[in-house]
């Protein structure tokens, strides 16, 4: 039996085709969970499900489409319903606030925030009926430290932190926990272009007290704990997984002798 006691649990992972999503899927499957892989991009998703085995399966689901989310949740309810939801799907449409379009702003909020609520409602229904379940939302240090020229990204992640806390308060008495993880700098296929430049990579590493850029596996390890019974008394929390980056601000301020 898995030390984390996840054997046989149904874990729903949104944005499963992305770098962090794939690491989450592999981590939960390795712990014995049956993984439902959700993404609007289905390229390779069936192959990932085959690789994972253990009853893993892929579902095409656009997290900006309430109907898609409900249909996916209904399918899982026929199997007993989700035990775990990892809200991971997100988009970034960068741009300064003086010119960001209403379309881009709304699109980011729809997926990065409203999609998290809709998924919690749809997949959480079985958890609430059962009186047990765990939600883990992937936020960002950009939710507490404003990230310039990123459109609605920081705003959406800040709101995700509050959404999780509100879910924890409202659903805790009904046996369902809700927590966030906030990644810092993570090397994924989408961010690889930054790290292809050796100078940029080195400068970024020097900003992080642990002197390395996170991998998607670093995020998955924390999500495993939060979703497991080992975190049974943890709810409403934000676990910052950034190698100490968010604590390094004052160390960047020039001082005599340093």
TrEMBL record:
Keyword annotations: Oxidoreductase
Gene3D superfamilies the record matches: NAD(P)-binding Rossmann-like Domain
EC number: 1.1.1.47
A molecular function GO annotation: glucose 1-dehydrogenase [NAD(P)+] activity
Entry's transmembrane regions: none
GO biological process, one term: fatty acid elongation
Pfam families per record: adh_short_C2
Protein family membership: Belongs to the short-chain dehydrogenases/reductases (SDR) family.
UniProt-recorded name of the protein: Glucose 1-dehydrogenase
Protein species of origin: Paracoccus shanxieyensis
